[in-house]
Amino acid sequence: MPLIPEEPQIHESAQGPRATPASGRTAPTPRPVPGPRPAAPSRPGRPGPLRPTPPAQRAPRDTAAKPGPTAPAAPAAPAPAAAQVQLIPASAEGALDAAEEAVDLLLDSGRAPGDVLVITTGERHPWAAHELSFGEAPYWAQHDAGDDVFYADAAAVARAGVRPVVVVAFNGGPDTAAATVLPLALARASALLIVCGDPQRIKGVLGAGV
């Protein structure tokens, strides 16, 4: 009967790659291939793999060495317009009555009572004398309230505040009253200054254009 060829014997030396490499180190055991791994967490002192590197900080420029452009100067605020001056000729005896008539016309034309300040150079207005009899504190409290016509004498005008209309009655007083009272009255009138008195004395202080 025919001879069946013997199956070739596989020697151990011919079975695949050797378990022990030529260098004598043991080959690592094959590991299963893992799925997609998450990004490794960042370690202290070094950025993580997905964190962008921050841009380098630039040193501030030396502004003292190279000053920037000079800003343009702000335009100057316009000077407030001077108050209009109106002169009512009157004697010293009739100046207070002329001032009262001027106040009545102002209120009739729509001016609020608190817009008007009346100054006398001689004898006090009866209202001022009456209110001052209760003391200066309530008297000036009415001035500060600003809701009514306020009457003051030449000695108190420096304490009075600005009002749209100031009426001055030259009803007596020293010869220097015009030179001392009119500049103060003009500074406290924001819109209109009405002066009741001797035209020559008034024009000598405020000018011939009055």
Task: Itemize the secondary structure elements and their pairings.
Elements: E1 84-89, H1 95-108, E2 116-120, H2 126-132, H3 136-145, E3 150-153, E4 163-169, H4 177-188, E5 189-197, H5 199-206
Parallel strand pairs: 1-5, 2-3, 2-4, 4-5
Helix pairs in contact: 4-5
Descriptive report:
With 210 residues, this protein is an alpha/beta fold. The protein has helices spanning 95-108, 126-132, 136-145, 177-188, 199-206, and strands at residues 84-89, 116-120, 150-153, 163-169, 189-197. The protein has a five-stranded parallel sheet with strand order 1-5-4-2-3, sandwiched between helices. β4, α4 (177-188) and β5 (189-197) form a beta-alpha-beta unit. α4 crosses α5 (199-206).
Average the pLDDT over all residues and give the rounded result.
77
Q: How does the major sheet shape up?
A: 5 strands, parallel
In angstroms, what is the radius of gyration?
A: 51 Å
DSSP helical segment count: 5
- Quaternary structure of the protein: single chain
Q: What is the percentage of strand-forming residues?
A: 5-15%
| Helix and strand pattern | EHEHHEEHEH
Percentage of helical residues?
A: 10-25%
Q: Kindly report how far apart the N and C termini lie.
A: 159 Å
Outline of this structure?
24% of the residues lie in helices and 15% in strands. The protein has 210 residues and is of the alpha/beta class.
